Structures are given as C-alpha cells and as structure tokens.
Amino acid sequence: MDLFYRVFGNGSPVIILHGLLGMSDNWISIAKKIAEKHTVFLPDLRNHGNSFHSEDFDLEVLTDDIIELVHNLKIENAVIIGHSLGGRIAISAVLKYPDLFSKIIVVDIAPRRYTGNRSISGLLHIMNRIDLDTKKNISEIDEAMKPLISDIRIRQLVLKNVIKNDEGFYEWKSNLLVITEKIEALMTPVFDEVQYKKPALFIKGGKSDFITRDDYAIIYRYFPYAEIEIIQNAGHWVHTDEPQLFLEKVMLFIRN
Fold first, then answer.
1. Are 128 and 107 in contact (CB under 8 A)?
2. What span, in angstroms and rounded, lies between the C-alpha atoms of 12 and 75?
C-alpha cells in the first residue's frame, strides 16, 4: 500500500518525516520555505494522518515504506529530514541505503534505544482514556485533556489526531490501538554496525533531553562526519519553537 504524501516546489529533492502522532501537514509552513529552492516531499507515516492503517508497525517496516516511496517516485540523491520518530526512520534509511540519499538532518533524536520513555507512554495512556464518543466538539475534548496535559502544544498535537466520522462521532485519525501496542518496536534500534559517511546534521533542542552529551559518541559512531547544532531556546519540537533559526540551519546545511 502506498503512503499519502504532499509535494511542494521544484528543484533537488528533500524528504521530511514527521514524528510520532504527527502528520505531514504539521510541516507545511517549513516545507513551503524549503520549497522555494527544492522539491519537498511530505509523507504521512503508516498509521498516521491520511496514510493507511496496518497491524505491521515497527522501525523496519516504517523504513521500508520510505524506501518504497523513494523508488516509486524515482527520487535520487535526496536530503532526508526527520523529527523524533521520523529522525529514527531517516537514520535507518540512510544506514541501509546510503546511495539513495545525499545528506541527512535529524531533529532531536539519537540512534539509541529509547525504551521506557514515560512521556510518550503516558501520552498514549491519556489518549486511550478519553471517551471521544461522548464529546460534542473539539473544545470539550481539549477541556477533558487539560487536567492531564498542561502543555498546550502537546494538546494541539493530540487534537490534530481527532476527526469526525461519517456517523458524526469523533474518533482518532491515527491508529492509536496499534501505536500503543507496538510503541516499544519503535524505540529499539535496528541499525547495523555501519556508517553513513556523507554529511549529517543533528539538531538538538536546548531545553530537550532527547539528545544528551552521552549520545554524541553514538552519533559519531554511525555518522563520522556529523555536525551537532543546539538551538538553545527550543524544546523537542525545535521547528515550531524556533522556526526561523531552525530554517536557517537547515538551509545552510543543504546549500553547503
């Protein structure tokens, strides 16, 4: 089955992969800026956004989906950008198929095991507790989450996953059941002991602990020519916290 994707602009190809519970339209504003000089492809990962739902859901099949998209669209020498889970997929893709990609940009994630991430597991637990059938509008869903999720950005991420079905009831757009059941399969690396010896940029949010100092060694193990940039006033969602500075770093890296 084919992934849903959006395309913007013309020029050398750039692929952007969203994170867990995200979707392609979260990146449209960034994509349109990059598309002033490039062709930008924004896919929805399986079990997310407008892409298909499937019981098969781990880092390996997500990587295979992106490689299939690259082959189907005949994309060559793409720059691949990935945030969070999208970054892990991008890492897996370039390590397995280095000839398909010219550069990689990884946003606030490292190539290591993330099993036991309480914030992600806790968020999924909260989403599963919300009875969408009884809610009359999005505001009621937001009010139900407020005592459990204080960060408005995280609530907005969750609310973007809510849609109204043909019967007029709210439901999850993402495949929440499978994502919850198989979250650990996304956190465990499937990276072989190989190196990507092309340009690589890791962008860390200064307020985020998804990349630590201890992670630098493992980054350089897989990416010997990696650059690591820190955007100080940003959290895990670097591209939304500091979009202008994020874009500047991305465009400079792509151009050089």
1. no
2. 9
| Chain-centre distance for alpha carbon 1 | 20
Give the Cα separation of 77 and 64 in Å (integer).
Answer: 17
pTM, full prediction: 0.95
DSSP state of 25: G
Average pLDDT of the residues in 47-61: 96
Residue 52 has which token pair?
Answer: 């298909």
166 class by beta-carbon count within 10 Å (0-12 exposed, 13-18 middle, 19+ buried): exposed
Q: What is the pLDDT of residues 161-181, one digit of tens each?
A: 999 999 989 999 999 999 999
pLDDT confidence of residue 117: 58
Query: Is the Cβ–Cβ distance between 127 and 143 less than 8 Å?
Result: no
CA distances (Å), 113 to each of 69, 132, 215, 218, in order? Answer: 26, 33, 11, 11
Residue 38 structure tokens: 């490039």
Rounded to whole angstroms, the Cα distance separating 199 from 226 reads 6
Contact yes or no for 45/177 (Cβ under 8 A) = no
| Closest listed residue to residue 87, CA positions, set 63, 53, 58, 68 | 63
Model pLDDT for residues 183-235, shown as the tens digit of each residue: 988 887 767 789 999 999 999 999 999 999 999 999 999 999 999 999 999 99
CATH number for the domain running over 5-112+189-255: 3.40.50.1820
Residues 6+ positions from 60 with CB-CB distance below 8 Å: 92, 190
Smallest CA-to-CA distance from 20 within 237, 206, 230, 203 is with 237
Please, what is the Cα angle at 222 between 238 and 201, to 5 degrees? Answer: 30
Residues of the chain with CATH 3.40.50.1820: 5-112+189-255
